[in-house]
Design brief:
The chain has eight helices and eight strands; from the N terminus they run ααββαβαβαβαβαββα. The protein is of the alpha/beta class. It has one domain: 3-Layer(aba) Sandwich (Glycerol-3-phosphate (1)-acyltransferase), CATH 3.40.1130. The longest helix has 24 residues, at 8-31. The radius of gyration is 18 Å and the shape is globular. The relative contact order is 0.18.
Length: 265
């Protein structure tokens, strides 16, 4: 058997451990909303790190994350995989914005609802105003929010166009934007496209990840951007350029400014 593929017995063992870990997350999530904020943060971080450990994903974090005293911190990240959420939670617990369809997914939807995920109706342009207000409320309460302004995942080799619609919340609250660059590498140091979640089912994606002996996940938190005095398109371009530059990828320019999470025509 190739050394580049995890043995079947190891994959089965990882999958079994993962299922038990998810079950423990479901049980914890029942009581999660009733715990104080610091306890919630600790629970979220430990659970996310557990996922990464089981899947043998080695997390490397560079740059400086905002400390607990930093108010109105909005994370803006490129989007490669469903693993991105685990990476961010493992280093700095936060709330996420997700498409409304996830709300009804088995198990995953329940977990997302319990931890306060903000769901957006991507087919409704008017829902952007509502979700911006929701994000603003969370930021003003002192909690973090993470958005993926590409509106979908890429294979990790190209940063896609950053939509600006959800960045109105940063302007409304004078928030600091923290551009986060995410990438996955295989054992040779090359981009690990098996970690990407594009045009495939969640189970197929999981099977590809389980086949990898290990994955190096690198998350870089860049210097914050002050939103005061800037418009949302300017903020989107700044974040896009910073993240693409850190990943050594060309900047993808697109004049279209459709709200985040809206499908292409």
């Amino acid at each position: 058997m190739s050394n580049n593929v995890t043995p079947h017995i190891v994959r089965v063992t990882r999958l079994t451990r993962l299922l038990f870990h998810i079950l423990s997350g479901v049980m914890q999530s029942i009581a999660y909303p009733f715990f104080p904020y610091p306890t919630q943060n600790r629970m979220m971080k430990n659970w996310a790190r557990g996922i990464l450990k089981i899947l043998n994903i080695r997390l490397h974090c560079t740059g400086k994350l905002p400390n607990q005293s930093t108010q109105q911190a909005l994370f803006v990240a490129n989007h490669v995989s469903w693993l991105d959420i685990c990476l961010v939670m493992a280093v700095s617990p936060t709330q996420f914005v997700a498409k409304s369809e996830i709300r009804n997914w088995p198990v995953v939807g329940f977990l997302c609802r319990r931890v306060g995920t903000l769901f957006i109706e991507r087919a409704k342009r008017r829902d952007t105003m509502r979700i911006n207000q929701k994000i603003s409320n969370v930021l003003m309460s002192g909690e973090r929010v993470c958005i993926f302004p590409e509106g979908g995942t890429s294979d990790g080799t190209q940063t896609r166009h950053f939509h600006s619609s959800l960045l109105q919340s940063a302007i409304n609250t004078d928030a600091l934007l923290f551009p986060i660059a995410i990438r996955y590498l295989d054992k040779t140091g090359a981009p690990c496209t098996d970690a990407a979640y594009t045009d495939l089912s969640l189970m197929t994606s999981l099977q590809k990840i389980l086949r990898q002996p290990h994955i190096e996940a690198v998350i870089n938190c860049n210097q914050p951007i002050c939103s005061t005095g800037r418009n949302r398109r300017e903020l989107a371009r700044l974040c896009e350029e910073i993240i693409a530059g850190h990943l050594s990828q060309p900047v993808y320019h697109n004049e279209s400014e459709k709200p985040s999470y809206l499908p292409n025509a």
